[in-house]
Amino acid sequence: MTAPKTIRWGILATGAIAVTFTKDLLVDPKTRGVNHIKHTVVAAASSSSKSRAEQFLKDTGCPSDAKAYGSYEELVKDPNIDMVYIATPHSHHYQNAMFCLEAGKNVLCEKAFTVNAAQAKALAMKAQEKNLFLMEAVWTRYFPLSVYVRDLITSGRIGPVARVLADNSMALNPEESFNDGKHRMVNPDLAGGALLDLGIYSLTWVFQTLYHTQPESTRQPPKVLAALKSYGPTKAADEASTIVLNFPRSPEAGGDAHAVATTSLRVATAPAGNGDAPGIRIQGPNGEIQVFPPAFRPTRTKLILRDGTVEEKNWSQPGPGGGSGWYNGFAGGRNAEGEGHGMFWEADEAATALVEGRKEGKYEGLAESILIMEVMDEVRRQGGLSYPEKIETTKYPVQL
Ligand SMILES: NC(=O)c1ccc[n+]([C@@H]2O[C@H](COP(=O)([O-])OP(=O)(O)OC[C@H]3O[C@@H](n4cnc5c(N)ncnc54)[C@H](OP(=O)(O)O)[C@@H]3O)[C@@H](O)[C@H]2O)c1
């Protein structure tokens, strides 16, 4: 057996998701049956201060020789980095990712990929020009649970998918939680709103079940009808969006298929944490697949067939295990002892692509990321939501 290849990561930004991702990244891949690669962190950078980067490295348990940088400029110059993980607010992804690509770095960039499709296209073109790897970090696509759901669909057990209902909504009280309007969830300067932050997961479920499961040669973009509710206090951010999609398909493949993707900051997919509400329903003539919330980190599925078959599955995330004294979670939330968050699956895919010489993610290539950005552009167009020019522009560089 050949020795595992080690991918050396640089972490750009030190906020909430950067912490969760980095802790997961450092879990031994063997704990999830992955033996061909390993991950290490060689540097982290904070735009605020070097000391913040130092603290981040300590808090996430990075190797003691990992470098702390007080600017992103220093990070991208580090010759020891194979791949940069970008974890800034989505308003900044375009400028940050372009900056990394220009410096010759491979990039895994948090969702939403960019503010709009034009920016996503410009990044894809730059990656191609520089022959670099570029992937949107839609971690859910790489979960074994998602692979299982897609396999169920392509195996034909529920028949051709006719309809997908997908919700990702959080019962937040935005006026209370984000009362100064500066938080990235509601701040127009940071491309705030439900659609780009949460709705991307509703669309992820629609696309990975209805679009990605079709042969590449027959996939066609959907028609989109949308309603968007603006968030009162900051005006230019949505607090709720509802999207109806029609996916054209040939009669032999089942004909047109419909989807409804919803998202809201204010109402919940699962009121009072009720995990029994299937936030995702994938329906065909022979039955349906239910995926239980949260849509971004589901751990339970149910297959219900017309003939009475019911197959329920639990998909807890692997990790160092009970007794390890290791914990992960997001923004103060804590998973069970030794249970990973699930962000390592996308990291494994990015690392594997580097080893294999691929330039895009296996379960969501750049064309699909761009198409989803186009859908979100259309939702914003119909809903009358635009962001400040400095974050919508494809001009580079722009100081944000
Ligand atoms: N995959 C997931 O489950 C998941 C979950 C949450 C968020 N996300 C995505 O990850 C990204 C970051 O989210 P987060 O929750 O980690 O946000 P966060 O806690 O606010 O962290 C964002 C970090 O970006 C850096 N930054 C640079 N310029 C900034 C600016 N003008 N304003 C604010 N921060 C700035 C800061 O790090 P430095 O000071 O160190 O530079 C900051 O700590 C978003 O695109 C979000 O959609 C993904």
TrEMBL record:
Domain Gfo/Idh/MocA-like oxidoreductase N-terminal: 36-135
GO MF annotation, one: nucleotide binding
Signal peptide: 1-18
Record SUPFAM superfamilies: Glyceraldehyde-3-phosphate dehydrogenase-like, C-terminal domain, NAD(P)-binding Rossmann-fold domains
Catalyses which reaction(s): D-xylose + NADP(+) = D-xylono-1,5-lactone + NADPH + H(+)
Keyword terms of this UniProt record: Oxidoreductase, Signal
Domain of life the protein comes from: Eukaryota
KW Signal (keyword) present: yes
Protein name: D-xylose 1-dehydrogenase (NADP(+), D-xylono-1,5-lactone-forming)
Species for this entry: Zopfia rhizophila CBS 207.26
